[in-house]
Amino acid sequence: MRPTLGIGMVGHAFMGRTHSHAWRNVDAVFQPALRPRRVVVAGRDPDRTAAAAERLGWDESTTDWRSLLTRDDVDVVDICTPGDSHAEIAIAALEAGKHVLCEKPLANSVAEAEEMVAAATAARADGVRSMVAFNYRRVPAIALARQLIDDGLLGEVHHIRARYLQDWLLDPEFPLAWRLQKEHAGSGALGDIGAHIIDVAQFLTADTIEGVSAMTHTFVEQRPLPSGADDGLSGTGGEEYGDVTVDDAALFIGRMHSGALASFEATRFAAGAKNDMGIELYGSKGALRFAFEDMNELWIHDATADPATGGFTRVLATEGADPYSGAWYPPGHVLGYDHTFVHEIADFARAIADGTDPHPSFDEALSVQRVLDAVERSASAKGAYELVDS
Ligand code: SOE
Fold this sequence. Notes:
The protein is α/β, with parallel strands linked by helices. About 30% of the residues lie in helices and about 25% in strands. It is built from 9 helices and 17 strands. The protein has helices at about 15-30, 45-55, 85-95, 110-125, 140-150, 180-185, 190-205, 335-355, 360-380, and strands spanning about 5-10, 35-40, 60, 75-80, 100, 130, 155-165, 210-215, 220-225, 235-245, 250-255, 260-265, 275-285, 285-290, 295-300, 315, 385. The strands form 3 sheets. Strands 16-15-14-13-7-12-11-8-17 form a 9-stranded mixed beta sheet. The chain is globular, with a radius of gyration of 21 Å. The N and C termini lie far apart (about 50 Å). The chain binds alpha-L-sorbopyranose (SOE). The site of alpha-L-sorbopyranose has 6 residues, from helix 7.
């Protein structure tokens, strides 16, 4: 029998569901050295949390997340709550010697993220691991792209174009869910989905953004207050209205430390775009294109090949040799959104068993947080170029 890795999860809405599926499926597919056990899920409402535990396969439920910290059968605290509670839970869990997996963005401010990095650094000295759930790194095609870039496919990168387009806020009567409130979410499209493409751009290039020039906008400034449970992404509004205090869209251009130029678009107002996350990279020797709604595909151009037969080639990243894919099904039996979380959790569980540091670390997520901050500074300064580290 393999030893057990006891999991305590905080939050059970959308991300709680994806993480629960992953903690359940990871064992059957990747067989980590430590066998994950879904011990306890914490939430605010006792009935809803108990129902979530039953549905998602957790042994117990509680309304007191702090009770996870003193339990010997909980080794990992998995944080799936809105950003306003990440710092408090993560720091307390790390101080209690629990490994921490934290949803993105890491925090609601740079100051909070810095405190979390300090706690993670102190805990690391005692073998306690921490990781941030930027799951798009675990799309096989993205992981393959990173390998190809490391191997020199692109040469010197000149351009990065990244987008994350959704449309779930088009209806002006969509309720003022927590994702639209700065005090809970930190920012809007910027931190929720812009953070993903910042992370993927930095991950793929193994580089960081030096500075940005940005514009943000809130198209609908008042919305009805939620009339029922607020999962941040759905529901109905009541009679009373409140102010939207975050951006609906954030557009910015930036320069990488390498000198590459980058553009980023994050919006919840792109009619027809459901989860259109995409990235393109153009270099001196070639190019790569990826779009999440076709997430098994990577488009590759080798600029050194014969132009007569060159051009973009479609690669299906489902071969046994491709990152993660070999653990699943034969080539061409395509993977989906859920699988990215299984991969993320497999890597996290492996790092805990091996005593290594998983990525993305809290430090890497802090670098994303600093970009979010620079974007907001630039947008309030009417697009002035703002350095990320200032
Ligand atoms: C909502 O915009 C959301 O659920 C994000 O919070 C996730 O991180 C993204 O993967 C899908 O969209």
